[in-house]
Fold each of these.
Amino acid sequence: QVQLVESGGGLVQAGGSLRLSCAASGLTFSNYATGWFRQAPGKEREFVAAIRWSGGSTYYADSAKGRFTISRDNAENTVYLQMDSLKPEDTAVYYCAAITYYTSTWPPRGYEYNYWGQGTQVTVSS
């Protein structure tokens, strides 16, 4: 059974930092790529960042560039999202997702991811 489990969310003041983790079981992240998405109340899910497991290339949404860093730990089968200089508008449920097949699009589109975690809440107070 495949599971992606996010952790590390919480309440932080504006300007603070959080590190989210996404641990996989039942699959190996080495297959293709892992992404982070978020969904704020009343808004659509949006892409945050993605990382290829082969080569480690990354891609960020404009809202995340310069503040967030996605990384991977092959040995731990875990992907991280380091979030610095957090803003109230970063408040959302954050989801990790894995795509285990090759796609020509980079970053992969949301609907192309075939496994999703349950999400972790991030709340940034002003």
Amino acid sequence: QVQLVESGGGLVQAGGSLRLSCAASGLTFNIYGMGWFRQAPGKEREFTAAINWSGGSTYYADSVKGRFAISRDNAESTVYLQMNSLRPEDTAVYYCAANSRPFGRATQYSTDFGSWGQGTQVTVSS
């Protein structure tokens, strides 16, 4: 059974940084693309960032491009989201997700992801 466990969320002032981690188990991590999504209060879940299975390709939502960076450590079965220059509108629960199929590309579509974590709260104060 695939398990994805996010950590690293918290409260930060606008302009600050956080690094989220997602530890994966129950899958051959190094052949699956990974992604981060977020859901703000009263809003639908939205794509944030994705990375393909090898780490050679990444994809970002326009709202975070240039501020966030996704990376992965296949030896540690962990995917990261480095978030810099945080804004109050980045406040959300952040979810880690794994592609449904191996050797997947970096994709923005939630339907391409078959396993999800429980989420970690990120709150950015103004």
Amino acid sequence: QVQLVESGGGLVQAGGSLRLSCAASGHTFSQSVMGWFRQAPGKEREFVAAVSPGGTMTYYADSVKGRFTISRDNAKNTMYLQMSSLEPADAAVYYCASKGARWTGIFHTDTRAYVYWGQGTQVTVSS
């Protein structure tokens, strides 16, 4: 059974930083594209960032480019999202997701492309 468990969310002041983690089990983590998504109240879940299976290639939403960094440690079956210069607009529940399939070389930003999801971790940014 595939499990993705996020942690690291919390309350931070605008301009501050947080590091989210996603611990994976039950599938071949090192062969899967992994991604971070977020969902604010009343809004659709949106793509934040993705990382290739080997961790050498990344892709970001324009809204977080230059402020967020996605990474992974395949030896620990864990993915990370380092968030800096946080803004109130970044407040949301953050979800990690796995495509669960061999990478084709293309990053997908649609939630339907990801098979496995974590339960989410809340990020609150105070102004």
